[in-house]
Design brief:
- The structure holds two protein chains of two kinds.
- Chain A is mainly α.
- Helices cover about 80% and strands about 0% of the residues of chain A.
- The longest helix of chain A has about 35 residues.
- Chain B is mainly α.
- The N and C termini of chain B lie far apart (about 60 Å).
- Classes of the chains: A mainly alpha, B mainly alpha.
- At the A-B interface, helix 3 and helix 11 of A face helix 4 of B.
Chain lengths: ~250, ~240
């Protein structure tokens, strides 16, 4: 219950933040620009719209996480408002889960707004066949951002905003390369292979949430993929938030 | 405050003028120079952080501009093979990139082997694509310097068996087989066309060609069944 209160408050704060509004406007402008640039694409305007639109949702969402998510806990520690908060009967894990849930909800709203805008733009241009694939791709992008948000909460509870942003970005980059790491681990011998394998499993496997290639040609993914991605996101977020709780509970605020 | 706004405007105008002068007077990267520095799409892929399709799209736009610019000026396309190899490695299901790249390489680039290799790469990545099979067949059909009718027929036939193969694939396959001298197979293919089409003009064509083939086989004079096809040429001069 307390987590819901914190989440609601965090959601309100995030949606009132100019960064979020700016991100949504940027996304809409990018979508509009695809129609201008599409003229240069020699008949590939639809493909360009889908690809750029989905990339924008993913990258702009990451931007929000790096700017807002990494400040979630650190800002309250800095302003010392956290003392007031934690003096209430709110468990630390409820606080962290609430922060994560609130920002994740705000990101889902961003994904939904930009996803609907993309779908409408394609529908207006006569491409009705992309609706299903766009919806799935946006859903997976939302899951990806939820996972990155959990990492941002973890880093934010441990460190300063700048370092949290860098750590989160680092996890994002290595996460995008996790499938390459797995391939290297398979080919490497001995301890190197083992270490690479461990790293590939520790970082979030973000390619699992990537169906931009399929969406580009209006293909949908399997239900199994969606289920596995959803379960993985929930489990990974659980792990990150549990670690954040462990770190947060050991902190002594004075 | 007015002074500050005026100063800002003045600086902006100066910056605008300097940028324009710099663009006109100073050397600048040519479209696709950056792409050329990467040895292959496989090395570029990790840098795209999961956004290979978008990177391929942006590369496509620049490749089209590169083609247009050189088509209008010197008709030299030295980087085209490399660029389309990168594009299609980043986005293996970007069918139009294979088709455009291959025909541009075969014609303006005068590099039929590179064109053929690009299309083969496309078919490897998209084995069920009737569109690509048809286009490869057509590439062989219009090969500059001499049509390769056997290969053309092979790929037209492949296209006719795929769900997205153009409806004219079967007819093209029969025509190419016939003109490559393989009259037996051509007859069978025309027979399939006759059986499967409801178009009266197609039926008439199939029946006519089947009669020609029968006359050629009966008389032993294969040339009765052959058309006098011209030799394709590259129309662009370097």
């Amino acid at each position: 219950m307390n987590a819901l209160l914190v989440a609601r408050n965090t959601f309100r704060e995030a949606t009132r933040d100019r960064v979020l509004a700016g991100i949504v406007v940027t996304g809409l402008v990018l979508l509009a620009m695809t129609q201008v640039v599409g003229v240069l694409a020699l008949g590939e305007a639809r493909r360009l719209t889908v690809d750029l639109g989905l990339s924008a949702i993913s990258l702009l969402g990451l931007f929000v996480v790096l700017l807002v998510g990494t400040n979630l806990v650190a800002k309250e520690i800095e302003r010392r408002t956290i003392y007031n908060l934690l003096s209430r009967p709110i468990a630390r894990h409820e606080y962290l889960i609430g922060k994560w849930a609130g920002l994740s909800a705000a990101l889902w709203v961003v994904c939904a707004v930009l996803g609907v805008a993309l779908g409408l733009l394609l529908a207006v241009r006569g491409s009705h066949g992309h609706v299903g694939s766009i919806a799935e791709a946006v859903y997976l992008a939302g899951l990806e951002l939820t996972v990155i948000t959990s990492i941002a909460v973890l880093c934010s509870s441990l460190s300063t905003p700048v370092l949290s942003a860098l750590y989160t970005l680092g996890f994002y980059l290595v996460g995008e390369w996790s499938y390459d790491l797995r391939a290297f681990a398979d080919k490497a011998q001995g301890m190197a292979g083992g270490i690479l394998g461990v790293v590939a499993n520790v970082v979030p496997n973000l390619p699992l949430f990537n169906m931009r290639t399929l969406a580009s040609s209006a293909q949908v993914t399997s239900a199994g993929h969606l289920v596995i991605a959803t379960l993985y996101a929930l489990v990974y977020c659980g792990c990150a938030l549990a670690l954040a709780t462990a770190a947060f509970e050991s902190r002594d605020f004075k | 405050m007015v002074v500050a706004w005026a100063a800002a405007l003045a600086f902006w105008v100066l910056a605008f003028a300097l940028a324009g002068a710099g663009y006109r007077l100073l050397p600048r990267p040519q479209p696709l120079e950056e792409l050329s520095y990467y040895p292959s799409g496989n090395h570029l892929r990790p840098a795209t952080l999961g956004h290979e399709e978008t990177a391929a799209d942006l590369g496509w736009i620049r490749a089209v501009q590169y083609y247009g610019e050189h088509r209008r000026t010197d008709n030299r396309f030295v980087r085209m093979r490399h660029v389309f190899d990168i594009l299609t490695t980043l986005s293996p299901h970007f069918l139009d990139a294979y088709v455009f790249g291959a025909f541009a390489l075969a014609q303006e680039g005068q590099d039929f082997h590179a064109a053929e290799a690009l299309m083969q790469k496309g078919l490897e990545a998209n084995p069920q694509s009737g569109q690509l099979a048809f286009e490869l067949g057509f590439l062989y059909y219009v090969r500059p310097g001499g049509r390769d009718l056997s290969h053309a027929a092979e790929y037209f036939e492949q296209a006719s068996h795929q769900a997205d193969g153009p409806p004219q694939s079967a007819r093209f396959a029969a025509f190419a087989r016939q003109n490559s001298g393989d009259l037996g197979v051509a007859y069978a293919l025309w027979s399939d066309v006759l059986e499967n089409t409801t178009n009266p003009a197609m039926r008439e064509m199939a029946e006519r060609e089947m009669r020609r083939i029968r006359r050629a086989l009966e008389s032993g004079q294969t040339e009765i069944a052959l058309d006098h096809l011209g030799t394709p040429r590259v129309l662009v001069r370097h």
